[in-house]
Amino acid sequence: MRSGDAAAVDHVRARVRKILAFKRLRIPVQDREDLEQEIMTEVWQAVNRPGFDFTAGFWGFVEVVASRRCIDWLRSRKVRLPLSEDLLDSGRNPLQKTLDNERTNLAEKVLAELGPDCRKLILLRLREGCSYAKIARDVGKTEGALRVQMYRCIRAAQLLLGDSKANAVKGKF
Question: Which of 30, 66, 112, 132 could form a disulfide with 19 if both were Cys (CB 3.0 to 4.6 A apart)?
Answer without folding.
Answer: 66
